[in-house]
């Protein structure tokens, strides 16, 4: 199976680095899927996006991301997010409350939506 080096980095921490068989991300141009051998590209991530990484071990890693960029070269896929959190780290109750709170700021609402999408994507097969 083909593989490529990949990493997910947020401003506050490095979330993951390793070998992947595919990466998908939501960009301002739409959702893209990247496989080894993909043409080089640079894309802007949406503010309430989800990134899915399929590792060479068959693991599915899902993160909620808030803005940033995805860079694809022939050797590596790099996701540089403004903020990111693993779906497994999301407090679903708190995210649902923030999504529904009328006085929530736009960024808090977007973060909650992104986190809930990530949790849902993690649960999909």
Automatic annotation (TrEMBL):
Name assigned to this protein: ATP synthase epsilon chain
Membrane topology according to the record: Peripheral membrane protein
Broad class of the protein's primary localization: membrane
Family per record: Belongs to the ATPase epsilon chain family.
Subunit record text: F-type ATPases have 2 components, CF(1) - the catalytic core - and CF(0) - the membrane proton channel. CF(1) has five subunits: alpha(3), beta(3), gamma(1), delta(1), epsilon(1). CF(0) has three main subunits: a, b and c.
GO terms under cellular component: plasma membrane; proton-transporting ATP synthase complex
Short name of one Pfam family: ATP-synt_DE_N
Gene encoding the protein: atpC
